[in-house]
Amino acid sequence: MLDEQSYFVQAVRKGDTWLVRHYLNDGHDINSVSQGWSAVSSAVIKDDMDMVLLLLYDGVDVEREDLYGNTPLQLASPVSKGLDQLSMRLIELGAPIDRRDEMGSTVLHVAAAAGDPYIVKLLLMYGWNRNAKDNNGRTALIHAIRAGNHEVSKALCSPMEHTDRLYIPLHQLTACFD
């Protein structure tokens, strides 16, 4: 039998804006979790930008982790078609960009592998360390190169204002010039 939290998260998954608003107006906990998934994580996975924005504007916790320890920003990186808008809003609301998944990957690693130069530039602008390594010792640049994302590789090779000095190991440098 489903509890009240499960019904709320289920309404989010279905994209039922009216029912979600009804639950919120009745004082339902916007940060509740059902079967390991928060409402916002469910909306991000469904790529339901309207629902994500509704939850964000109603004060959802942008640091809330799902069953696997992923934040909404980490989930948005590989799945969202509205990635730039959603990621920007999450970052503006204080989503931690330095959180790592179980493989030691950050949002920057995932965005680099997914081939999204806009998000890569956005994360660098917000001060993320381009030289951070995952559990396998790979930087975002290595992820971009392995995925064949040349535009992202170039973005990662370009020095930006307000970031730490650019350090690119020699074996990665060839991706910067093509």
UniProtKB/TrEMBL annotation:
Show the Pfam families listed in the entry: Ank_2
Species: Morchella conica CCBAS932
Keyword Repeat appears in the UniProt entry: yes
**Entry's PROSITE patterns?**
ANK_REP_REGION, ANK_REPEAT
Keywords on record = ANK repeat, Repeat
Keyword Repeat among UniProt keywords = yes
Record InterPro entries: Ankyrin_rpt, Ankyrin_rpt-contain_sf
Top-level taxon: Eukaryota
- Put simply, this protein is called Ankyrin
